[in-house]
Design brief:
Its cofactor is [2Fe-2S] cluster. Helix content is about 50%, strand content about 10%. It is of the alpha+beta class and about 180 residues long. Bound molecules: FE2/S2 (inorganic) cluster.
C-alpha cells in the first residue's frame, strides 16, 4: 500500500477542496481515473486519505482504487520533495554509473527511489535522458543540473541544500 507521510495543514486543506470536487462529480467506474487525476492535481500526490475519498464516492474498495492507481506511472503516492533529486538513467548516464549515483542518494537520504524524506525536503526519482549526455552521469537537485556526478559529490549536494535552508530560516526569523 502507500507509504504514510503525516499530513500537513496544506494537505488537509487540499483534501477538503478535493472532497468538494468529488461531491460534484458523477458516480461510476469510468470516473475512477479522472478522479485520481483530480486528486493528484489538487494534492500533488495520492495519500491514502485521497484514495479513500475516491473509493467512498465510487463505492468501491480502497484496495481496488490503489490497484488501478498503482498500475499507471502518472500517479505518485509520496509527496513531492521541495528539492526533487532526479537521477538520469539515459544510456550515456547509465553506462557512466548513473545507478551508483542513484544508490548513493538513496543511502544518504535514507529513502528509496520514488520516496520522499519525512521532512519533505527531498524525493528521489530516476528520469530518462535530460539532454546533457556530454556531462554524464547527470543528476538534478531541484532545478539545478549537476554534471560529471560522482558518489563523492552526493553528500556535498545534500548538505548544500540543508545549509541553504537553515540560512533562509535564520533570515526569516530575523525579520
Ligand atoms: S543520458 Fe543522461 S543526459 Fe543523456
Amino acid at each position: 500500500m502507500t507509504t504514510t507521510h503525516t499530513l500537513t495543514d496544506e494537505d488537509r486543506a487540499n483534501l477538503e477542496s478535493l472532497q468538494a470536487q468529488i461531491d460534484s462529480s458523477p458516480v461510476g467506474r469510468g470516473q475512477l481515473i479522472p478522479l485520481l487525476q483530480k486528486a493528484q492535481k489538487t494534492l500533488g500526490y495520492l495519500p491514502e486519505e485521497a484514495l479513500a475519498l475516491v473509493a467512498d464516492h465510487l463505492e468501491i474498495t480502497r484496495s481496488e482504487v490503489y490497484g488501478v492507481a498503482s498500475f499507471y506511472n502518472q500517479f505518485r503516492f509520496n509527496p513531492p520533495g521541495r528539492n526533487p533529486v532526479k537521477v538520469c538513467m539515459g544510456t550515456a548516464c547509465h553506462v557512466r554509473g548513473g545507478e551508483i549515483i542513484l544508490e548513493n542518494f538513496e543511502r544518504k537520504l535514507e529513502i528509496k527511489e520514488g520516496e520522499t524524506t519525512e521532512d519533505r525536503e527531498f524525493s528521489i526519482e530516476r528520469v530518462a535522458c535530460v539532454g546533457c549526455c556530454a556531462l554524464a552521469p547527470v543528476a538534478l537537485v531541484g532545478e539545478t543540473l549537476h554534471g560529471h556526478m560522482a558518489p563523492s559529490k552526493v553528500e556535498g549536494l545534500v548538505l548544500r541544500v540543508r545549509v541553504e535552508k537553515e540560512k533562509a530560516e535564520r533570515e526569516a526569523a530575523k525579520q
